């Protein structure tokens, strides 16, 4: 799939995510004014955050897709991580506010009555239906592009489905059983899910900004490809770092020093294509050394070579 096609799919997922979030914010504002339900308030706050996250993610997708330039030789993929880190802080603050409101209502005596439960249930059913459709489209985009922003957004929306169902149960319990406290309990559960999701997103963004290595299974896979590749007699200094949805890979390979430069280049280029075929999200740079070359005494950082 071409880069333009992937970029178009990622943008479509971002636009759809922002559109769904905007519709749900407006619908839940109406439902909250009609019901005064704390669980709907929690769901409204979650949708408002979804809108912010989606707009930020859309901007990050657009900016990260820009090609490298004079000031950003390795591209702009870190924009995704910066956006995700900022979003996680706001989500944590919102979760704390929702939990505080729920605890206050639980300890302050009999809960305020919830009204117009039927309208609230209709809005929450609409929320679940729209969210489910969005998640299905995001899943299709992720399979095609592997974009990290879309994947994180999908996980967040998947997490929204459970609080939405919980809000419906809270409204039903209030309307049929008179159990108004269920509303606050559901709100606490929604706050906990928000906090867990925010910590997960924030950790992933922080790791990427701190140049964390690729997952061990990816490193092992690259090592296997290099170790078994025709013409490669050894390799060393395999280094990786994550930036947004891109994994940068640097690798030194050892080749027969008697072969021509054209032959050495052909081996290195073929190995790069093999790695990209296995890991399309990678940006691969390969340095070629003659086999048996001795490390320079002033180069203590060089790692031992690995051979077949």
From TrEMBL:
Report a single Gene Ontology molecular function.
Answer: cadmium ion transmembrane transporter activity
Where in or outside the cell it occurs: the entry states: Membrane
Q: Where is this region: Disordered?
A: 288-308
Q: Where is the Cation efflux protein transmembrane domain?
A: 15-210
Q: Which residues form the Cation efflux protein cytoplasmic domain?
A: 215-290
Transmembrane segments in this chain: where? 47-65, 85-107, 119-137, 157-179, 185-202
Q: Which UniProt keywords apply?
A: Cell membrane, Membrane, Transmembrane, Transmembrane helix, Transport
Regions of biased composition (Basic and acidic residues) lie at 288-302
What's in the GO CC field?
Answer: plasma membrane
Q: Which Pfam families match?
A: Cation_efflux, ZT_dimer
UniProt-listed GO biological process terms: intracellular zinc ion homeostasis
Membrane association type: Multi-pass membrane protein
Top-level taxon in the UniProt lineage: Bacteria
For this chain, the family text in UniProt reads: Belongs to the cation diffusion facilitator (CDF) transporter (TC 2.A.4) family.
Q: What is this protein called?
A: Cation diffusion facilitator family transporter
Species: Psychromarinibacter sediminicola
């Amino acid at each position: 799939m071409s880069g333009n096609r992937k970029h178009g799919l990622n943008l479509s997922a971002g636009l759809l995510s922002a559109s769904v979030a905007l519709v749900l914010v407006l619908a839940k504002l109406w439902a909250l004014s009609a019901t005064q339900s704390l669980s709907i308030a929690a769901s409204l706050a979650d949708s408002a955050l979804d809108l912010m996250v989606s707009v930020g993610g859309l901007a990050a997708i657009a900016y990260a897709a820009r090609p490298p330039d004079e000031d950003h030789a390795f591209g702009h993929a870190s924009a995704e991580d910066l956006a995700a880190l900022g979003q996680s802080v706001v989500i944590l603050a919102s979760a704390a506010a929702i939990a505080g409101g729920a605890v206050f209502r639980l300890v302050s005596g009999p809960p305020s009555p919830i009204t117009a439960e039927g309208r609230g249930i209709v809005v929450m059913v609409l929320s679940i239906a729209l969210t489910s459709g969005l998640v299905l489209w995001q899943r299709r985009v992720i399979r095609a592009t592997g974009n990290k922003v879309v994947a994180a957004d999908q996980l967040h929306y998947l997490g929204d489905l459970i609080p939405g169902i919980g809000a419906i149960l809270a409204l039903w319990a209030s309307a049929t059983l008179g159990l108004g406290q269920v509303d606050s309990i559901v709100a606490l559960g929604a706050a906990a899910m928000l906090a867990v999701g925010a910590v997960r997103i924030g950790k992933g963004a922080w790791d990427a900004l701190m140049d964390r290595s690729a997952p061990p299974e990816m490193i092992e896979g690259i090592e296997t490809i290099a170790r078994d590749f025709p013409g490669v007699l050894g390799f060393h200094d395999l280094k990786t770092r994550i930036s947004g949805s891109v994994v940068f890979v640097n690798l030194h390979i050892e080749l027969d020093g008697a072969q021509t430069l054209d032959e050495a280049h052909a081996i290195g280029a073929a190995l790069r294509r093999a790695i990209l075929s296995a890991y399309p999200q990678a940006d691969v740079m390969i340095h070629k050394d003659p086999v048996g070359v001795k490390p320079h005494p002033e180069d203590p950082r060089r790692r031992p070579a690995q051979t077949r």
